[in-house]
């Protein structure tokens, strides 16, 4: 299995500055690009990929939305996500991932976005340059949404479950967070994600 760990960035992270530990995942057929803020600390990972925290429900939501099975990407016994299955799914469907920061300082020893200081923001236009089929950037948190709006010179942030135009042919769609700390039932989150994927032409399971 191909590795998505950015070993160069892991090696140069020092003096409180963390460089992004994952390579951008950008399949040529990507129609949507999820941009978060920054991955949690590696001690919280169960796989070397995006949304690696086992108690984050992103991959359970995608399992429910696309396959009608929230555990489609889950190895319950090992308490990890099935990386081979995730990567094959994202490549087949055209779902890309990266983050709005390429280097950060953590102001507290946790995974909360509110305690991230962005040292180096991501150049989003350079990141998306080769994605000719891209229709939307997707965010699930306020910090990532704010960062993208600032980058594109947009004054008003979209509300959750709505979208705005960033530039011709590209929208910003904001979803509820897949973190269990976000106060919304799993079924409601799955409904919201399903609606987004349907908007951009994905084939999903009947909800």
Largest sheet: 5 strands, mixed
Poorly predicted runs: none
Report the helical percentage: 25-40%
User: What class would the helix/strand composition place it in?
Assistant: alpha/beta
Shape by Cα distribution? globular
Count of DSSP helices?
A: 6
Please give the radius of gyration in angstroms: 16 Å
* Strands ordered across the widest β-sheet: 5-2-8-10-9
What percentage of amino acids are in beta strands?
Answer: 15-25%
Mean pLDDT: 95
How far is the N terminus from the C terminus? 32 Å
* Strand runs, count: 10
Q: In words, what does this structure look like?
A:
This protein has 207 residues and is α/β, with parallel strands linked by helices. Strand 9 and strand 10 form a beta hairpin. The protein is globular, with a radius of gyration of 16 Å. The protein contains six helices and ten strands; from the N terminus they run αββαββαβββαβαββα. The longest helix has 14 residues.
């Amino acid at each position: 299995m191909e590795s998505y760990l950015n070993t160069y960035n892991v090696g140069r992270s020092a003096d409180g500055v963390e460089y992004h530990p994952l390579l951008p995942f950008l399949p040529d057929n990507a129609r949507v690009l999820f941009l978060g803020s920054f991955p949690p600390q590696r001690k919280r990972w169960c796989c070397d990929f995006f949304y690696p925290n086992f108690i984050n429900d992103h991959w359970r939501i995608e399992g429910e939305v696309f396959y009608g099975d929230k555990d489609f990407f889950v190895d319950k016994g090992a308490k990890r996500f099935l990386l081979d299955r995730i990567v094959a799914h994202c490549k087949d469907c055209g779902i890309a991932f990266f983050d709005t920061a390429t280097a950060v300082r953590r102001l507290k020893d946790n995974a909360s976005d509110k305690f991230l200081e962005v040292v180096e923001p991501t150049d989003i236009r350079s990141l998306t340059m080769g994605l000719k089929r891209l229709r939307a950037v997707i965010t699930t948190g306020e910090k990532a949404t704010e960062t993208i709006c600032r980058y594109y010179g947009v004054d008003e942030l979209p509300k959750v479950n709505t979208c705005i135009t960033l530039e011709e042919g590209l929208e910003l769609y904001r979803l509820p967070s897949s973190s269990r700390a976000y106060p919304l039932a799993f079924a409601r989150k799955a409904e919201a994600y399903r609606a987004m994927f349907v908007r951009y032409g994905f084939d999903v399971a009947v909800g």
